[in-house]
What does this fold into?
Amino acid sequence: MTRAISLHNVSKAFARGVRVVDRLSLDIDPGEFLVLLGPSGCGKSTVLRMIAGLEEADEGELRLDGEYANDLLPADRNIAMVFQSFALYPSMTSRDNIGFPLRIEAPGTDPRPRVDATARMLGIEDLLDRFPSQLSGGERQRVAMGRAIARHPSVFLMDEPLSNLDAKLRNHLRAEISRLTRELGVTTVYVTHDQTEAMSLGDRVAVLRGGVLQQVDTPRAVYALPRNVFVAAFIGTPRINLLRGVVRAPLDGAMTVSLGKQALRLPEPLSLDHRLLRVQQGREVIVGLRSEAVRIARHATARPGEVPLTGLVEHVEFQGHEVLVHFDTGSRPAVVPDLEAPRPTGRPPRRRRRDGATVLDRLRDRASSKRAGPVVVLEHPADTGPEPAPPEGRLPGDLVVRTTPDIQLRHGMQVPLLVDLAHLFVFDQHGERICPSPARLPDLDE
Ligand SMILES: Nc1ncnc2c1ncn2[C@@H]1O[C@H](COP(=O)(O)OP(=O)(O)O)[C@@H](O)[C@H]1O
Ligand SMILES: [Mg+2]
It folds into this structure.
């Protein structure tokens, strides 16, 4: 099949040596809604601007509808872009704003029928004679979308189009964008730093970090089988619990993942995934537990595949329909850099060579982007400076569990918990997922 958009090893640097997009390869099917997701500064807009032709790739190849497009002028790409700032001409009415690109493209043709049809589609017929200053933010963004739609482009590029709107309007327009793009069947690349938006809109989600593609998959697959700890932490609310652990695999006893003062004891016989953990014996790993992986077990007994853990209630966050309980389990949280703040540009951090690094480690070092650096830093204390602070909302407890409001918990209570090992994630020192096994294909319909 001819791809609508195809990027092959595309790189871009603004300052010498600092790639803001690093060897990005991505194929987008005709009619697909692809979301580019990542923290601020990770290169999302730059990717979009390269597809639009507003920015030139330093390296790599861009194809549109199968044709080599690196040199194609923006005007020859049949692409319409919608930006975060609504970018309307203030001296033109909505009608003229929507019709403007049509008049440029086909001078002498009456743009009215198309403008009217577009306005009907967006429900903005009564706004056509108003000027931008007479419109609310949401109305302005609808007009801006109208301008993109009226041209009947083959590709929509949307760069955080909802970021400037309040939450309620954002949800409303999000549903509208989803409906419209599917109705029109136009290939869409949508940029956002908001994982909820990405998950609810995308046919597939491409997660970027420091200009490097981390994973591209369906929303289901990036949630259920995140390739690394960054993807796991970036996607899902409340954020996945990430605890530092050590795999212990005595020859004569049950294998455990110790979490500071406690340990998860893996049931025998070991599952295939757990057997794979053997190679990590003695090494530090990151244990990932989403809130559905842990339940409060005050009056419950363990089901098969569940193992006990104890938590000290540190903080109870009432949220109405649910309650988030922060537990201290005596373990240390793992810190994933870059989750919200952009990495300062300039000289990329050097990763220190550890003793005992394997050839694979070294290859991986070389392959990983200089700018992006390792996904997670788990090194000997002597190797690092002061430990970075855990992310916001993660203190004081280190394990956040979601529960129903009827459960009464107070600060200082010791509470038995049950961990469902079917939902256990383990990541290696580089942040790559090792459990469930990386070889496992998404089998999400079971
Ligand atoms: N024209 C430019 N000149 C220099 N640096 C730029 C330019 N555009 C973007 N950058 C830098 O490139 C990086 C990625 O930017 P951008 O693609 O806008 O990220 P995002 O859209 O994900 O927030 C940032 O560090 C940004 O400062
Ligand atoms: Mg941007």
User: Anything to note?
Assistant: The domain at 230-337+375-435 is CATH 2.40.50.140 (OB fold (Dihydrolipoamide Acetyltransferase, E2P)). The mean pLDDT is 85. The pocket of adenosine-5'-diphosphate (ligand 1) is lined by residues 14, 20, 38, 40-46, 342, 345 (CB under 6 Å). Residues 294 and 419 are 5 Å apart (CA to CA).
